[in-house]
Amino acid sequence: MGLSNSRSPSWSSNARRPRGYIGTAHQTIGSDITALLKAVLMPEQMLGKEVVSGLRQVEGHKWYPIAMLLDPLDRLDQLLGESSLRKIGWTLFEQSHEKAMRAAKVSVRAITYGIDGMYHRANRGQDIGGWRVVTFEPGEAVLEKNTPHNCIMEEGILEAGCRVAGVVPTIFQSECIRNGGVVCRFVIRSHVVDERWNG
C-alpha cells in the first residue's frame, strides 16, 4: 500500500536512490510505521484518510514492504518544511529508541557506531544499504548512509540520539542525494569532548 495519487507514485518506482541501494525484497518492521503515525500531527489531513486507515492496521511486530513507510515520508516531504521533518525524526526516536538508550547511558560514539545496527534491526532484504562511520574525532563525527529513508528526518533522529547522550550537536550534510550526491554524508559537531562524546 502506498500513496496512490499522480503526484506521489509508489516509492518502488522512484528513481532517486543512493549509490549501492537496490532494495530487493526490502521490508521494514511495523513499529517504525506506527511510530511515524504517532509523529505526524493531523495525519488524515497530511496523508489522506484512506492511507491512514491502512497504516493503522499495521502491527508493530510484523514486517511490511518499505514503500508503506517511504511513500508517506515522500508525501510529508512535499508538504512540510525541513524543521517539521526533523521534528518527526525526534518523535520517531522517542517512540522507538529513547527508552533503551537512556537506560544504557549511551555516548555520541555509541550512537554513531550503533546506528547501522539499529537500521538493520528494523529493515531486512538484500542490498538495502546502511550507515558507515567515516571519521570519529573529538568534537566531530562524519557518517555516510545509503539507505532510502528521508535524510532530513534522519538528521532529527541523530540529533535526538545525541541529546540523550547529553550533547546538543550541530548537524549538517556535506553531501546529499537530494542535491545530486550519491550518498548522504552527515557531519556532527559539538564542543563537548568528554565521556558524553567518547563514552
Brief summary:
The protein has helices at residues 30-39, 43-47, 49-55, 67-79, 82-96, 98-104, 108-122, 151-164, 195-198, and strands at residues 24-29, 63-65, 123-126, 131-137, 140-145, 170-175, 184-189. The chain is of the alpha+beta class and 199 residues long.
Topology (SSEs and partners):
Blueprint: E1 24-29, H1 30-39, H2 43-47, H3 49-55, E2 63-65, H4 67-79, H5 82-96, H6 98-104, H7 108-122, E3 123-126, E4 131-137, E5 140-145, H8 151-164, E6 170-175, E7 184-189, H9 195-198
Antiparallel strand pairs: 1-2, 1-3, 4-5, 5-7, 6-7
* Fraction in beta strands: 15-25%
Helices, by number, come to 9
For this structure, the quaternary state is: single chain
For the CA atoms, what is the radius of gyration?
A: 16 Å
Low-pLDDT runs of 5+ residues are: 1-9
Number of E strands: 7
* Whole-number mean pLDDT: 89
Give the class from helix and strand content and strand pairing: alpha+beta
Report the span from N to C terminus.
42 Å
Largest sheet: 4 strands, antiparallel
The helicity comes to 40-55%
Q: In sequence order, what are the helices and strands, one letter per element?
A: EHHHEHHHHEEEHEEH
Apparent shape: globular
- Strands of the widest sheet, in order across it, are 4-5-7-6
What tags apply to this protein structure?
single chain, alpha+beta, four-stranded antiparallel beta sheet, three-stranded antiparallel beta sheet, 7 strands, globular, disordered N terminus
